[in-house]
Amino acid sequence: FTLTGIPGMPEKDLWMALPLCLLYSTTFLGNVTILIVIKVEQSLHEPMYYFLAMLAATDLSLSLSSMPTMVSVHWFSWRSITFNACITQMFFIHTFGGVESGVLVAMAFDRFVAIRYPLHYATILTHGVIGKIGAAILLRSMGAVLPVPFLIKRLPFCHSTVLSHAYCLHQDAMRLACADTSVNSIYGLLAVIFIIVFDALILLVSYILILQAVLGIASREERVKAINTCLSHICAVLLFYVPLIGMTLIHRYGKHLSPVTHTFMANVYLLLPPVLNPIVYSVRTKQIRRRIIQMFCWKQERK
Known about the structure:
It contains 11 helices and no strands. It is an all-alpha fold. The longest helix has 34 residues, at 83-116. The mean pLDDT is 85. Belongs to the G-protein coupled receptor 1 family.
């Protein structure tokens, strides 16, 4: 396959390389910092922060899945990718996208338990339960995406092999096949419903239940405190679903739009959540923010 940088503007690809490197550097630094802080700070060894560590690890993995081809296209103008490499990248991008959706649902469940059953929070979400939830999220996503490489591999490609993005996606490669792709389309739709739509419905129900639990709290101060513990998660949900919905709508109904718009939305969906999630949680979560400040102050004192 041939990967695409900025459609119609190859001479400006270099101007994309520097921002991309900055975004990937910020993603790596932010998510690794979150993981280190949660690991070394004993007070953060709680279910809420274990789920945050899962989100950071997922964001890091999602970025690393797309980084090799994104950087090679925009920095080195290496646009060719082998069929097997494309399928491999496709598998990991879709898998970690599904994992991120599942982790956001698990975080919503965590907030519901913390607000509705605060006295039983630690006994309900034990280390074993959290580990099983994480394993179930990963296995569900891998199981849903696993047939995709085999469905793509059976298709013949005899005409254009130019992809729309600087990385491989199932729907992008599928449209280049010179054969009937109805099986791929139906399975892709079912996978999206099983993971993304199902998770979105669970998130909606979870926040309805959370709102009911918050309204049942007598003290106004406690209600505000309970809502504040959900704000970071709400931001993470919006950062994931808003670009995803925007990209889907443009892909389905924006055929008349410029290819640059399609590329921009696809890159926003892939790059924005991993960059901003660590920033949101660092700014909104006092314990993480304080520990990060302590880390940097300790390094400066050593110098």
